[in-house]
Every structure is written in structure tokens, then in C-alpha cells.
Amino acid sequence: MPKKGILERLAEGVVIGDGGFVFSLEKRGYVKAGPWTPEAACEHPEAVRQLHREFLRAGADVMQAFTFYASDTKLDNRGHDAGKKFTGKAINQAACDIAKEVAAEGDALVAGGLSQTPTYLSCSSKDEVRADFRKQVQVFVDNKLDFLICEYFEHVEEIEIAIEECKATGLPVAATMCIGPEGDLHGVPAGECAVRMVRAGASIIGVNCHFDPFMSLETVKLMKEGIQKAGLKAYLMCQPLAYHTPDAGKQGFIDLPEFPFALEPRVVTRWDIQRYAREAYDLGVRYIGGCCGFEPYHTRAIAEELQQERGKKAKGTEKHDLWGGGLVMHTKPWVRARARREFWENLKPASGRPYCPSLSHPDNWGVTVGSDVLKQQKEATTKEEIEKLVSFKK
Residue 294: how many CB atoms within 10 A of its CB? Predict the structure, then answer.
């Protein structure tokens, strides 16, 4: 019996996405921070495979192939030698093989993903940007993946091109931008971005990355209002960070001084994610997942919060129990008393860092502009050098 497709599943209820492979694998020693490229699919396939399996066990309905930033232009633009060792095609093929293998172990769909490219930021022609996307998409088509995701785009103009190239394959297309309530980096409002994504051909639209679950839902709400006002329809999708970012600026967590190596104090709890899942569902979001910082236990929290709506239990719940129910077997009576929903819903976790502020001050150096100085940008190391290459905010 053939698997139900993504649009059919969304019409019936909730689809749970997986989590943040790039950050998870960086912490495990398989991805280099800075380039954030996915050559681990070729170098360490067992690590990528295991992470897929953990998200599947946690309740994910989609295995998104580990193809983030796997364009040849990005691989060539990174300042280390993996781009010489592996082509984008080789990485994407390996990622498809792994995702398909693990998806077959459950009832999961496989998605291929496109993300923003240096080609667009260097002000290349739209035809060059299209060609960059087309090369990546062809691998997904050849592997007969179930649908395509255009994610992590800061400029709506670029994601429109990506959507159009994906739509030409005949596969369902999801599209998410890494923007907050202020809109894209060219000043296009979130609601207008949503309208343009739908008109470009996306059946599923929303946001991913850069902002925490609750700021991301604010943006999705604006997108929902935008498409409703335009008389358009699309399924809503949200895959936020697993970090609290109430103090982030327009570019999100990359402007926070803790990015990327000191974000742990900001990690959301599984109970925060249960609240996010409920608020997302109530908003009408039906594709609910996560991005950077999301670990399998966060995905399991989504599955547990929406267990009744989904009509099934994640395998990972076998070792968890809802709302800490397993704690009733603890040897300490005060810990046994925590085996209840009210305790975890009302807890205000302490950071254990008495000299740390609750919020940070974003760097606010400005938005990197597309130009012919990418080589200079890559080589710049001091604040003074970089300020010359960005539109600095006074």
C-alpha cells in the first residue's frame, strides 16, 4: 500500500517535522561551525543515520535529507577543503540514501531541502541562481523523494526562485523563511512574504530558524493574516529554534553574542515545546517541527502534546511517560511529587548563573549586503574590516 503524501497527511491532521541536524552534528563533532555544510553525509554517514533514527523514534513524520547548504557555490565558498573533496551532488545523493533508508523503518516521508546561496548574495543574475537550485533539485527528483522544502531564506525574492524551480518538478513544495515579525532583510513584511511564497507555488508556508518558538509563531500569525487577506490558501508550517530569543534583533540569534558556542543557557525545555506545540496547533499550524537546537526529546514533546490529535504514540514515549509520570518510581519522595503536569507547567527554571543577565545586547552590526566583495567578507576578521562590508547601524 503506498504511503500517504504530505498534502494528504496535512489534510487529515498534524505532521511532525524533525529537528536541527546542523547544530546537533556540530556538537557531536561532525559539522564545522561557520560553514555549516553537510559533508558529514559522505564523511560520517553513520552519525547522520543515527540522528535520523532518533528523530523517527521521537515521533517525526518526515526525514528531511541532510542537504542544508549543499550547493556547489556554498561548498566552494567556505574556506576549508571539504568542497574540494565532495560535490554538492555527491553530498545530496548520500543524504537522500540515508534519509530514505531510515524513513523505510517507519511510516515517514522523505523531503529534499534547498537553502539560500552565495549566488544570490553576490548579486548574480536570476538565471544563475536558478541554475544553482536546479542542480540540487535534480538529485531529489532522481531519488523520487516525496516532497521538497525551501528553507532558511532571508530574502523573499530568492525563495520565490527556489519555489519556482521546485514547483517545476511536480512535487509538493513547502517554503519557510528565517525571518521574524519585522519581515525579510529587504523590508518586505511577513504577510507579503507569505503571499509571494504561495503565488510562487508553495502549498505549505511558514518560518524556520533564527527565532524561538513563540516569536516564530508571531510571524506565522502575520503570514496567516496575509494569505487570508489575499484570498489564498496554504498549510502553515513552523520549525523554530530551540533557544529563547526575546532579545534578538531583526536577524535573530546570529546577532546574539552567544551565537553559536554559548547558547546552552537559552535552550528551551521539553515543557516549553509542549506549550509551543499546543499554541501552534491552536493557531492552525499543521506542520510542526524544529530547527537549530532541537534535539529528539524536543520532537518527542511535540508528539506527546498532540498525541490525542494524532491518534498515535511515539516510540520514544515508551521510556518517558506523559508529564514525568515515570518519576513516581523514584526513591526520593520529593521527586515523586514532581510526577504531575501542574508542577512542570508552572516551573520557572533557574539558570544557576548568578552573575549572568537574563538578556543580552545583540551586536547589531547591520545586514550583510550582496555585492562583489564576498571574498573580502570571507577574509575579514576584525570588526573594523567587517564594518566596511556591511550596512552598519548607527
Answer: 30
- Furthest C-alpha separation in the chain: 67
| Residues 337 and 360: beta-carbon distance below 8 Å | no
Residue ranges in the chain assigned as alpha helix (H): 6-12, 21-27, 40-43, 45-58, 72-75, 82-85, 88-103, 118-121, 126-142, 156-167, 190-200, 213-229, 270-283, 296-305, 307-310, 333-336, 341-346, 374-379, 383-387
Instruction: Give 98's pLDDT tier (boundaries 50, 70, 90).
Output: very high
Q: At what angle do helices 126-142 and 88-103 cross, to 10 degrees?
A: 40
Question: What whole-number distance in Å separates Cα of residue 42 and Cα of residue 228?
Answer: 43
Task: Quote the DSSP letter at residue 121.
Answer: H
Ordered domains of the chain (ranges, CATH):
6-320 (3.20.20.330)
pLDDT in tens, 362-373: 987 776 555 444
Round to whole Å and give the CA distance between 304 and 277. 9
Q: Do residues 174 and 6 touch, judged by C-beta distance below 8 A?
A: yes
- Cβ neighbourhood burial of 49 (10 Å; 0-12, 13-18, 19+): middle
Contacts of 354 (CB under 8 A, 6+ apart): none
Does the pLDDT of residue 332 top 50, yes or no? Answer: yes
Angle at 150 between CA 68 and CA 45, to 5 degrees: 25
Q: Is the dihedral of CA 194, 189, 219, 362 positive or negative?
A: positive
Round the average pLDDT of the chain to a whole number and report it. 91
- pLDDT at residue 372, rounded to an integer: 45
Q: Please, are residues 150 and 163 in contact by the beta-carbon 8 Å criterion? A: yes
Residue 375 has pLDDT above 60, yes or no: no
Helix (H) or strand (E) holding 238: strand 235-239
- Find out whether 133 and 145 touch, Cβ atoms under 8 Å: no
Q: Report the Cα 359 to chain-centroid distance in Å.
A: 23
Contact predicate 288/281, CB 8 Å: yes
Nearest 5°: phi and psi at 150?
-100, 115
Q: Global pTM?
A: 0.92
Residue 340 reports pLDDT greater than 80: yes
What are the pLDDT digits (tens) for 38-80? 999 999 999 999 999 999 999 999 999 999 988 878 887 654 4
11 with 239: CB under 8 angstroms? no
